[in-house]
Amino acid sequence: MEYQHLLIEQNGPVIRATMNRPDRLNALNRQLVEELRHFFTDLYWRDDVRVVVLTGAGRGFCAGLDLKDRSNENAETTTWQSLRFQRRIADIVVAMRRCPQPIVALVNGPASGGGFALALASDIRIVTPEVKMNAAFIRIGLSACDIGVSYFLPRLTNASVASQYMLTGRFIDAETALRLGLAAEIATRENLDAVGQSYVDDLLHATPLGLRLTKEALNHAIDAGGLEAVIAMEDRNQILSSRSKDFREGVAAFLEKRKPVYSDA
Questions:
Q1: Which domain of life is it from (predicted)?
Q2: DSSP state of 139
Q3: Which of 63, 149, 155, 217 is the most exposed place for a label (fewest CB within 10 A)?
Q4: Are 25 and 60 in contact (CB under 8 A)?
């Protein structure tokens, strides 16, 4: 698929995906929806990619659904056509959670509605001081329960916080995001890439298999029925990881106080 609004740069095992509609604060039109959906779905089979960095071009991360684009719908649009498009948008966050690569979101500006959902579906979020995030859906006559927000927000914070921001549509600023645990750090625009790279470097210190299995098990553990189910996944992961050549390389590098060189074997 050729991308029009998604810039992809790969540097070794790291891919940087930049939503590139800066004149619209990277709002999600139909083309960008399809590109994000294709990109994250395809990552499931990309063994050459170990870490993903997601950000937006210009002064915004993602302003959510492009309402001007949505206004092109007419009275002849069927309920099924609308539901089908809705599910294609939702597929993005499902694919983000399912893909084995950790996703580092550099939230460099407004992240509303669908943009908020993309940030929440990422694994690590670094925000700039001017960031404002909100479940904007409820402010335009829709439910705030959209694109996975009602799944991610109460799990990342708690039910009370989720109710506070989803029922009102109020904005979460950078300091509040940090306090609530929605942001790992606050970084200036000038320093955002450097801070993001520091997390990428730490992620690459893990073995490729260990990193993939950790994301997978952590996501399953969030929804697990109890401790024993989580322990069973953890035991599986540790045995699988310990059987790899990369595990032996990781131990050797630690003992020799050097950077490990992994072969994904």
A1: Bacteria
A2: G
A3: 155
A4: yes
3-state secondary structure of 225: coil
Instruction: Name the pTM for this structure.
Output: 0.94
Question: Residues with Cβ < 8 Å from 105, sequence gap 6 or more?
Answer: 53, 54, 55, 61, 118, 119, 122, 124, 125, 126
Model confidence over 118-165: pLDDT tens digits?
Answer: 999 999 999 999 999 999 999 999 999 999 999 999 999 999 999 999
Task: Give the DSSP letter of residue 76.
Answer: T
239: left (phi over 0), alpha (psi -120 to 50) or beta: alpha
Distance from C-alpha of 260 to C-alpha of 97, rounded to nearest angstrom = 27
CA angle, residues 19, 21, 26, in degrees to nearest 5? 65
Q: How far apart are CA 53 and CA 196, in angstroms?
A: 8
Residues 74 and 148: their CA atoms lie apart, in Å, by 26
Burial class from Cβ neighbours inside 10 Å (0-12, 13-18, 19+) for residue 8 reads exposed
